Amino acid sequence: MRLKIDADLCVGCKACEIACSLEHHNVFNPKRANIKVIFTHPLPSAPKYCRQCKNPQCVESCPTGALWRDEKKDMVVYDKEKCIHCLKCIEACPFDSIFYNQTTEEILKCDLCGGNPVCVEFCEKDAIKFIE
Amino acid sequence: MDGVKGKLLEIDLSKASHREVKLEKELIKKYIGGRGLGVKLLGDLLPKNVDPLGEENIMLILTGPLTGSIVPGSGKYVVISKSPVTGGFLDSYSSGRLAPEIKFAGYDGLIIKGKAKRPSYIYIEDKNVEIKHAAHLWGKDTFETEEILQGSGEEEYGTMCIGPAGENLVNFASINSDFFRQAARGGIGAVMGSKNLKAIKVRGTGDISCYDSKGMMDLVLKHKEKLKESAVVENRQKFGTPSTLDITNEAGMLPTKNYQSGVYKKAWGKLDSEGVSKNIIKTRGCYGCMIACSQITKTNDNEEEIVEGPEYETVGMFGPNLGVDSLSAVIKANIKCDKLGMDTISAGNVIGFAMECYEKGILPKKYDDLDLEFGNFEAALSLLDDIALRKDLGELMANGVEKMSEELKEGSEHFAMHVKGLEFPAYDPRIGLGTALSYAVSPRGACHRRAWPPSIEVLGNLEPYKIEGKAEYVKEKVDENSVFHSMLVCDFPAKWIPLSVEDFATYLNLLTGENFTEKDLWETADRIETKIRLFNNREGLTREDDNLPPRILKDTLPEGPTKGNVVNEKDLNTLLDKYYEVRGWSKHGIPTTEKLKELNIKGE
Q1: Residues B207, A25: C-beta atoms closer than 8 Å
Q2: Is the dihedral angle over the CA atoms B509, B514, B517, B523 positive or is it negative?
Q3: Domain tally, chain B
């Protein structure tokens, strides 16, 4: 399963980011979200989000095995205990969709909220879909 | 208290210094934030009778407890100051990323004091606060300024800035955020310009805590379901605010040629929802808003000419009010106003006034070569530049219709459409007595954002010209908005979904962990509105100022469903008596001692 976003439908409201930060950290802080809508002038840009790639370059780049592809769950999983913050995955991701928050020193990687992504739930425009 | 930071950042531009000021929990409980907190702080911090454009005036840039959360409409800030237009209380609201960024940076708001020695801008990143030179930004329009402030775009910043109009202290200069959003009414941009402050740029990395995340998410999702049933939401999501023109033109309250008529037949299919929808290229939503009513349009002549809007007010003031039926022309005026940093409402109003002066031969002889006939849109566009740069006739117009008519005389006061100096927005108050009352008593001058009685006088079932029930209705609606604008949320989701004051009490409690009741919030609103009245009284505003222009009191509307409508002065006086009475104010519009005791603000 993975997310799919229709950028044409995105209105740039950031509800996905806000909900994501609330779900994962119990706070409002879009800078700690695993999904990002970058504001560009004059139109909102396409959101950045993890594709849960079949041949994930982030996994390939990870020296410690903190990232791997879980075929049963059909997604790329991140284990922060194994992560050494080398940030190689961020460089490797072709979609610029793994993020690093310098203040909290967190790697931000979409975990599909354990199977019920809140970004999908909170997107009023149905721009974010959860698909096979 | 969860959800709030309990801190304000005070920046003194004269001393080039800053400090943190504690925001007591008791103050939040008593005044919430935004509008409410603003009037309390303004009254406490500002000495009496200061010059609004002098060094002593202050600017409060405030958020509210709900700012930055996921509550619908929680992406707004308010700038509060002493108004250069009315000399009284001024609150001017805008959406923009600035609002949540201020809170992420760790503050509930900013207090801006003094005046910088030279053009400056303020940069805030969490605890790091710098007052920087802005010589490279001074003179630039707001789009250029924001592009420079945003830099590469890798990091996002919340910004607010003024354009040339603000620098030149134009009476209706705006503050701009995110290119297209403005705190525009009441000349707040001129206050910022008077402080030599070009811009503020903020980035915050901190969290906003939430007392009950699960409860918060559940309630937002419940309201997200509820909005699917709302026909108003559906309409606004499709057309944005311009669909209001369908109502105002049909009802006969659409300002036409400087309020000489309330009907503009040529608008149908061109400036109404149908007309505007042809030019929409994209929808945008403010921070965290599930409605997203903002429509981005382009002109017919140039793909590059894009604006977020035009909102209904802009369409009304630059369309029918100027005798113009071209949407592209309205969009061009919108872009120009945004870039120059000017309120489209007042700008459209003052141009309409100049056009009527031209029609009546009142303009000074030296402007004889100007062709200011209603409908001449090219002339209107070039006047916008002249106003912002205070050039030629623009110098006179930059002071607003009240001062311009005082200068011109020759009976022009009769059709200078303002209350307390603030220009009328795009609703003719002759539509009904409630609407007339709401304009007369609005603390910042002629304003459609405090109460909007057409919702009962046109769309509802209260007879427009019956006095009964109007004062009570206006009070209730003013108080309701007072709650929303103190929380601080946009009142659109609240009204369109719709959500009640009780719903917002629940939101506030889920966020803060406190126990606000609906009753508390209504009482708080009553307190806030009386505090604002006290501030205006203190600054010299009286019952005399709760008035309407002669045109509204003497001229009947000439055609359409409102043909023959005029607001009788006696009726207005009866309405004022009644409004003051339901507010607990004296016949002179001064809050009584009993009322102050009841609201727990006596001697405060």
Answers
A1: yes
A2: negative
A3: 3
Residue B112: which of B136, B87, B146, B79 has the closest Cα?
Answer: B79
Residue-averaged pLDDT of chain B: 97
Whether B575 has a pLDDT exceeding 80, the answer reads yes
Q: What's the confidence (pLDDT) of residue B570?
A: 97
Q: Mention every residue, 6+ apart, whose C-beta is less than 8 A from residue B221.
A: A121, A122
Can you give the pLDDT at residue B495?
93
Nearby residues of B164 by Cβ (< 8 Å), 6 or more positions away: B139, B141, B340, B341, B388, B389
Average pLDDT value for residue range A76-89? 97
Mean predicted confidence (pLDDT) in A25-32: 97
Task: Give percent of chain B above pLDDT 70.
Answer: 100
Contact B120, B196 (CB under 8 A): yes
d(CA B214, CA B502): 19
The amino acid at A23:
E
Q: Which of A18, A40, A118 sits opposite B288 (nearest CB)?
A: A18
Q: Which amino acid is at B81?
A: S
φ/ψ (deg, to 5) at B194: -65, -20
Pairing of strands B120-125, B197-203: parallel
CATH number at residue B128: 3.60.9.10
pLDDT at B335: 97
Which DSSP state fits B376? -
CB-based contact A41 B179, cutoff 8 Å: yes
Question: Which among B207, B227, B306 has CB closest to A42?
Answer: B306
Q: Are B356 and B382 in contact (CB under 8 A)?
A: no
pLDDT in tens, B422-437: 999 999 999 999 999 9
Question: Does residue A44 have a pLDDT over 70?
Answer: no
pLDDT confidence tier of residue B511, bands split at 50, 70 and 90: very high
List the single residue in A with minimal CA-CA distance to B286.
Answer: A13
Which 3 state secondary structure label does DSSP give B181?
Answer: strand
Residues contacting B271, CB < 8 A, separation 6+: B242, B245, B264, B315, B319, B320, B325, B327, B330
The 10s digit of each residue's pLDDT in B175-206 is 999 999 999 999 999 999 999 999 999 999 99
Interchain CB distance below 8 Å, A28 and B153: no
CATH number for position B319: 1.10.569.10
Compute the nearest-CA separation of B73 from chain A (Å).
10
Q: Which of B221, B212, B215, B273 is nearest to B245 (CA)?
A: B273
Distance from CA of A123 to the nearest CA of B (A): 8
Q: What is the DSSP code (8-state) at residue A30?
A: G
Does the residue B215 lie in any domain? no
The mean pLDDT value of chain A amounts to: 94
Asked if B282 and A19 come within 8 Å (Cβ–Cβ), the reply is no
| DSSP tag of A47 | P
| Shortest Cα–Cα distance, A50 to chain B (Å) | 18
Lowest average pLDDT, out of A55-64, B255-264, B279-288, goes to B279-288
Confirm if A10 and A3 have CB atoms less than 8 A apart: no
In a domain? residue B545: yes
Residue B263: pLDDT band with limits 50, 70, 90: very high
Domain boundary among B405, B423, B441: B423
Over residues B491-508, the mean pLDDT reads 96
Q: How far apart are the first and last CA of chain A?
A: 4
Chain A (55-74) residues lying within 8 Å, Cβ to Cβ, of chain B: none
Give residue B238's domain range: 231-423
- How far is it, in rounded angstroms, from Cα B349 to Cα B446? 12
What pTM does this model have? 0.97
Nearest residue to B282 via CA among A23, A44, A74, A24: A44
In terms of domains, do B304 and B175 share one? no
Burial class, B84, CB count within 10 angstroms (exposed 0-12 / middle 13-18 / buried 19+):
buried
Same domain, B536 and B440: yes
